[in-house]
Amino acid sequence: MSDTKHTKLLIIGSGPAGYTAGIYGSRAMLDPILIQGMQPGGQLTITTEVENWPSRKEVQGPDLMVEMEEHARAAGTEIIGDHIASVDLSNRPFTAIGESGTTYTADAVIFATGAQARWLGLESEEKFKGFGVSACATCDGFFYRGQEIVVVGGGNSAVEEALFLTKFASKVTLIHRRDELRSEKILQERLFKNPKIEPLWFHEVEEILGSEDPLGVESVSVKHVKTGEITEIPCKGVFIAIGHKPSSELVVDVLETHMGGYVVTKPDSTATSIPGVFAAGDLTDYVYRQAVTSAGMGCMAALEAEKFLSENE
Ligand SMILES: Cc1cc2nc3c(=O)[nH]c(=O)nc-3n(C[C@H](O)[C@H](O)[C@H](O)COP(=O)(O)OP(=O)(O)OC[C@H]3O[C@@H](n4cnc5c(N)ncnc54)[C@H](O)[C@@H]3O)c2cc1C
């Protein structure tokens, strides 16, 4: 027989937003249940050094997430290894069905299901993720001071990342499979004026090449999309900037979304279009996409859920 669990506050997602919501929700005596999903700890578990989490000059992403999990558990959050397959937000209590077969009912829900960077899908990209391959210039640009790097993509993110990376890199090659960018004109102007950036038109990445011991990127091999000619570009870092996809499949049909699926929240709030349903972290944030901003939104969501519950009990 399938199991049913009721909670005042259900938190879906175990990244910085989810665990922070757990800590604040527990301290507000809401006895939250947090569902971890397929990626316990979220996106930071697939990176190595994190150097911008306040109070930690350097910490491994997976270690930071284990510490956050322990903190949320110690505060009183019940943490469950399950993945939510569907939700019904039409009535309170809200319902979420786990792939384990458990039905969770809740008086308030925080969605903190994050986002995923889009990747090229190459085996070599997978191999060097965290060892030269990144999808976040703000996070990892600092590691490439004085080095040559490449950025892959042609939209706003790619141009912004390329411009940002010139603060650190000696040279940035922007690899794009067309001969024009999709980004805003003002960004393009800045890019073309920057002497450190060299666009490489009509090319796509074939393979990322590097050393085994220590694991690290040495170059990328790129193919001309028209002639098929292969060239090798030396570089120490490869930034894939072909977009992000919010993990909003559970709610895309019921909550208001924009910008390709990001959940819309009220100004200065994590409240969504359904009262009692909150959204925090990368699921709502197409601008900053950082651990610390996600944690901040997790805090806001728990405080707002507590206020909602005290006003609606
Ligand atoms: C390679 C890499 C390096 C990065 N480095 C840094 C850095 O140095 N500093 C920094 O500040 N930021 C960094 N970031 C960005 C940072 O990881 C994100 O901004 C942050 O993790 C977002 O947190 P979140 O809680 O919103 O969601 P996420 O971390 O995306 O977590 C989402 C959670 O939701 C869960 N989930 C999804 N769907 C379901 C479901 N249906 N049911 C249950 N659970 C579900 C997942 O299992 C996961 O636990 C990096 C990102 C990447 C990819």
Shape: elongated
Described by strand count, sense and barrel closure, the largest sheet is: 7 strands, mixed
CATH architecture of the largest domain: 3-Layer(bba) Sandwich
- Which compounds are bound in this model? flavin-adenine dinucleotide
Description:
- It is a single chain.
- The protein has 2 domains: 4-116 and 244-312, FAD/NAD(P)-binding domain (3-Layer(bba) Sandwich), CATH 3.50.50.60; 119-240, FAD/NAD(P)-binding domain (3-Layer(bba) Sandwich).
- It has helices at 16-27, 61-75, 123-128, 137-140, 156-165, 185-193, 291-312; strands spanning 4-12, 33-35, 49-50, 59-60, 78-80, 84-88, 94-98, 103-111, 115-117, 133-134, 148-152, 171-175, 197-200, 203-212, 215-224, 230-234, 237-240, 244-246, 257-258, 262-263, 277-279.
- It is an alpha/beta fold.
- The chain is elongated and about 65 Å long.
- The two termini are 30 Å apart.
- The chain contains 7 helices and 21 strands.
- Bound molecules: flavin-adenine dinucleotide.
- Flavin-adenine dinucleotide is lined by residues 12-18, 35-40, 42-44, 46-47, 50, 52, 83-84, 112-115, 117, 134-136, 139, 247, 250, 281-283, 289-292, 294.
